[in-house]
Amino acid sequence: MARLRSFQRLAAHFVDIADFLLVYIEEAHPSDGWVSSDAAYNIPKHQCLQDRLRAAQLMREGAPDCPLAVDTMDNASSAAYGAYFERLYIIQEEKVMYQGGRGPEGYKISELRTWLDQYKTRLQNRNTVVIQV
To answer: What does this protein do, in the record's words (predicted)?
Structure first.
């Protein structure tokens, strides 16, 4: 949940230059599967899309201001982006510009913040006009 709050703070900070989207994928540690001792929630393996939608609502509670999408039951988004368990991406004009490491170890909000800071600086410099007299 702390990671989700960090993500939400990042999204709020960069709302002027980026659109943020959370995509809920297959549950990494379902309560009826490979259970993690530090799992924040007791979510069983999704049997249908309705199960996944219910579980995704828990994510929405952690970041209520961020749009939320839910992966299909065949895990098409997760497979296409290699997102399992959790991962951060920046996509511009249908091209992956930043791909963070696989979570939980590779999930680094600080790397994403650095990329966005650099991008914002480039945007500001592009809009700066220097006139010599």
So the answer is: Responsible for the deiodination of T4 (3,5,3',5'-tetraiodothyronine).
Please report, to the nearest 10 degrees, the dihedral formed by the alpha carbons of residues 89, 93, 95, 98 taken in order.
-30
pTM: 0.79
Angstrom CA distances, 75 to 2, 27, 71, 100, 108, stand at 25, 11, 6, 19, 23
Residue 94, sorted as left (phi over 0), alpha (psi -120 to 50) or beta, turns out to be left
CA distance 66 to 71: 16
Q: What is the pLDDT of residues 64-120, one digit of tens each?
A: 888 999 999 999 999 998 887 789 999 999 999 999 998 878 889 999 999 999 999
| Residue span of the structural domain in which 29 resides | 1-130
